[in-house]
Amino acid sequence: MIKLRDIQKSFGDLKVLKGIDLEIHEKEIVSIVGPSGSGKTTLLQIMGTLDKPDQGSIEIKGKKIDGLKDKELAIFRNQEIGFIFQFHQLLPEFTAVENIMMPALIGGLSKSKAQDRAMELLDLLGLKERAEHKPNELSGGEKQRVAVARALINDPAVVLADEPSGSLDTQNKEELHQLFFDLRDQLGQTFVIVTHDEKLAQLTDRTIHLIDGQLNDK
Ligand code: ADP
Fold first, then answer.
1. Nearest ligand 1 atom, CA 51
2. How many Å apart are CA 75 and CA 138, to the nearest integer?
3. What is the Å distance from ligand 1's center to 208 Cα?
4. What pLDDT shows up at residue 22?
5. What Enzyme Commission number(s) apply to this enzyme (predicted)?
6. Which ligand 1 atom is the nearest neighbour of the CA of 194?
């Protein structure tokens, strides 16, 4: 599903990624762990086509990303990659259902179809009653589940999550982790999760250690 070959990335003199080779399979849930500053977010951003490597190639769902024009890349990203961040990043002036619909509307789906799909996802995530609530009327766990629904609205092949449970308490953390596995089983997404949470890392199909710009998947 994701193939990275010899990915290298520097910021000025700082060499952050020193030749990353990685293959992630369809429906796999992979965690990426490593010390702070080891390049986990940079690697996830590159996988998500939000940042470009200095060198190396990226293939997602059989499509070579290098060389795509910015507009093609933006369309591909919106369709095939869902993002979940540590802080939900919902737009405060919009309701839960409107936030979830946003990537579908950007992708050109009609408003009524986007709304139907968003309501299905809210139902699946146990949040149907919260559809018309704005983010400040939702609990932390609910906001993060709305962010998960937003990541899934276009039925992406891949979901990339950067410390998704980092701002949640223990119970919400465990519920969110369980949700990733349920979603993989029900919807078939591939998940890549950057996390400091050892409990979550232990649950995933595979843990990849990023140390000093290199992978070590022992
Ligand atoms: P991690 O997610 O493992 O904590 P990051 O990928 O966020 O690590 O960062 C790796 C290193 O690259 C850090 O030293 C960070 O300061 C640096 N870095 C990340 N993004 C940038 C940037 N846009 N410009 C300059 N330095 C950056």
1. 23
2. 30
3. 18
4. 95
5. 3.6.3.30
6. 2
Q: What is the pLDDT of residue 175?
A: 87
Q: What is the 8 CA–ligand 1 centroid distance (Å)?
A: 13
Which residues, including other chains, have CB under 8 Å from residue 147's CB and lie 6 or more apart? Answer: 84, 85, 88, 89, 90, 99
Spatial separation of the C-alpha atoms in residues 122 and 96, rounded to whole Å? 9
The per-residue pLDDT for range 107-166, each reduced to its tens digit, is: 999 999 999 999 999 999 999 999 999 999 999 999 999 999 999 999 999 999 999 888
CATH number assigned to the domain comprising residue 28: 3.40.50.300
With respect to residue 47, please indicate whether it lies within any of the assigned structural domains: yes
Residues with CB under 6 A from ligand 1: 11, 14, 16, 34, 36-42
In the numeric block, the tokens 């986990």 are attached to 40
Domain membership of residue 127 (yes or no) is: no
